[in-house]
Amino acid sequence: MTPAPDVVVIGAGVVGAACADALSAAGLRVTVLGRWFAEGAATGAGMGHIVVMDDSPPQLALTAWSRAKWAEWAPEMPADCEDVRTGTLWIAANEGEWGALEAKRRAYAAAGVASDVLDAAALAREEPNLRPGLAGALRVPDDRVLYPPAAARWLLERAAERGATVVEDLVRRIAPGEVVAEGARMFCGAIVNATGISAPRLTPGLAVIPRKGHLLITERHPGFCRHQLVELGYLASAHTMTAVSTAFNLQPRATGQLLIGSSRQLVGLDASIDRQVLAEMLARAIAFVPALARLTALRAWTGFRPATPDSLPLIGAWPGADRTFIAAGHEGLGITTAPATAAIIAALITGTRPPIDAAPFAPARAMPAMEAA
Amino acid sequence: MSAERTTLAAAMMNDGVTAFRTSVRGAARGPLCGMGICFECRVSASGAPHERSCLMPRAAGDSPRAEARSLECDVAVVGAGPAGLAAAARAAEAGKQVVMVDASPAPGGQIWRQGDGAAAPRAARAWLARIVRPNVRVLQHAEVIDAPSATTLLVATGDDTVRVHARAIVLATGARELFLPFPGWTLPNVLGVGGVQALAKNGLDVRGKRVVIAGSGPLLLPVAAYLASHGARLAIVAEQARPEMVRAFAISLWKDPARAAMAARMRAAFLRTPYRAGVWVSRADGDDRVREVTLTDGERSWREPCDLLACAFGLIPNTELARLMGAQVKRDGIVADGSQRTTVPGVYAAGECTGVGGAPLAIAEGEIAGLAAAGVTSAPSELLARRARERAFAVRVDSTFLLRGSLSTLAAPDTILCRCEDVTVGEVSAAESSREAKLRTRAGMGACQGRVCGAAMEYLFHWKPAEPRAPLFPASVGALAARDERAR
User: Taking CB atoms and an 8 Å limit, are A300 and B470 in contact across chains?
Assistant: First the structure.
């Protein structure tokens, strides 16, 4: 009989894959239960924008540390991960947004994250397809873009090379030291619940709710834009828990295709395309980049971000359940922050010091109430 | 011959162009389907990239535009082939306001395609005349890209969109060819069987061209006859079905003298060319285009030089719109009851999209659907009898032209399966579902949205095709940004 694993990681999206990678690198016997291509999961649906976010000091620390890790991994990643250092342009639509732009630059600088301000003329030179009359942008040159399902698969394969086992199975319930899946019952040292929007199913009481998003991808139009383009107003859209919001977010893919976002909705798990929200999102993108209107749209889809009431992920031990750890609730930043999440989880399980302060991410912290629509 | 119906694709091929586009991995590609399905004939036209040249008139710059943003009607008919024309005519003659939506430059569908090389046959002309009425409006070069509700269609016409609001909708979306991968099938000038015919009817000059037809089903005969009578040098017509089945089917035609006479007439048009059952393609070879094809009868293989290879393995119903609308669909087509009603109230389906059965069946179903959609509750018994007779014939056709199992083993691991994204059979076969294959290899993520490779994967690996989503066909971002003023 094979020995019981030290850790069972539940969920094979990018967060679970990164946890398996970090735990196996720490010398632990790891079993992963899940499918990296799971239907409806954020890894298969998301944009894959590796971005430093400054909306709160813990988020800044988590995203900055993680982005550095992705950059370190980049030379090893296979070509199908489609990793490109595009940089991000945070676009100020009008003079009124200069203040916010400058505050953002200072916050990045304090954290050692490089950025520089582009005035209107420089912005037009960098991205000629943006409409004239925009005030300027903050360029964050080290942000990147990758293809999340391939990156998750690469992390899983790396863990497997170190002896981790990956099993496609659906976990029914967990108890300390015990995992009951459809295919097997398993005993283990520790458990990591990395199942994104499904996390509360295994750990009742977790404050994770699905926040739906729409994305649309175009035909190949190489050279149409070079940076990931995001409106400065994006943060307001991302961090205000309204029923529906859209923000301009345009991503050049390695293939020459363009990915257009973004929308946020609290509508439960209805995965159907909301035509009005999609239209609003595209109209907003066209308002920033008029030439988008004539490009050919290939496909649109939806996905669910695992959101939390205070917009920070849940990373750490779950009180009351011995050796049970949570790595979930990353909302739209799961791809970006998977490396730091995994490093914190690995440190907590092996009893070493996490690379960044993990206290703000404690899964049972006090949080504002949030109602699903 | 009038030049107005020559498509850009046909004109380019006549000019000797073989490389219409460069694939993801840099290979030259040309038209395959000839009917707007495969997206292999994309070119930049009138300043817009990624346009399907098989749907564009040769004269550029006259991309049709809709005048209205929104149309109201009693009955909307999607598709202007035999079923759609019959449905539209019957509904209009019952006094209803009808809007027809059709992707081609002219009505007729695939079988009654009108073009330079083709005047529509007599039956077609009669139906085409019946829709020329003040209460029928036909949107050509128009594609349904979404159905926001069971009474609304979002239609893309050029860069514009029109919302068609209808009390009833008849789906007459027809069928497309089943393409199965084999080594060399991505070479320029390897086309579908219906694909060659579509291009020829729209102006492709086949005079003196050496053509091999290899495939399956009743379609081979009219295409062979058409190409031969238009000056092509047919090398062979290879039918993959078993010879004894085809023989028995031919003998059974004596019960149907009209059909027997038509088959004899078609066969007479290419009498000097062998028609061989139990023969199929195993590979194609060439350089900038196909030069020869290897055929086999399972024991012996031989090569046939050719300029064009017409190859497809029968027809499969177009059910994407029906599935998007939530109608029940089985493998052989959209589920419809005796009145051609789908499982979605107010939505009807007729013709090949409900099960492949030929134009006469499509007409009967279209007439019944058109009457029902117009609120005529009882269809004439003659019509019901005609439909029953044609369905019985369709069953005989189906059982005759069964695809042999060895067709699923033609492809080598390095044979392209997904033509849009250049993904090989070997890469895809590592996956266990179409979704896994898609996320792992990009198979099915391209412009044809899996219409070509999805059907092949279903055949090769028995994978369920992905659920269709809007936009059903690639459409401009601007078209999808248009808001519905009536909603919310």
Answer: yes
